[in-house]
Predict the structure of Response regulator transcription factor.
Amino acid sequence: MIVIVDERELVKDGYQSLFDREGVASAGFGPSEFEEWVSSVAEDDLKAVRAFLIGEASSEIVSPRNIRERSTAPVIALLEQQSLEQTLKLFESGVDDVVRKPVHIREILARITAISRRFQDEKPYSEFGPLRIFMDGRDPEIDGDPLPLPRRERRILEYLASNAGRRVTKSQVFGAIYGIFDEDVEENVVESHISKLRKKLRERLGYDPIDSKRFLGYRLVA
């Protein structure tokens, strides 16, 4: 889930719509409500956040260092106009990157992936046997051949890969894919997506790489 912080409803709604087209869950906050939320939200919900986007109108109010006290997710500032002084000030405040608008939503996702990779010293993809999973929106590959997937199934596979070695619950998958504030979608939809994903992977791999345990959740295995 991507968290967008801006005092303008039009900006928040616009970004949420663009992220939704890419199959990425997002949530929008005003500056004051965000400060209250980030300081009190449950740890499990915070783990669903992939990155924080801080709008220019809120940059003086939202403290990146306060975010960093609770999360290691990338913090990216969005600037309306290019300004060296403002850019330097934002970096000094603790943001990980500064991006001038307009910017394509896929570039933002690519920057988030690059920052996360530097923090975690990761390659731009994860490998599980012959299965290679990218974190930048590309379809996964099996023995070098692409495996086209619907965006939700692809995002679930990416989320499982990003949690390699750990088991994630259905609630955690739902929060990462649909957002923790989406009340219009039932959490059980995760089971349907994973069932379809497992079938496609099993047909191409000859085995099921998603290990599931009732009440414990899911994890990828080689």
Remarks:
- The chain has a mean pLDDT of 86.
- DSSP finds nine helices and eleven strands in the chain.
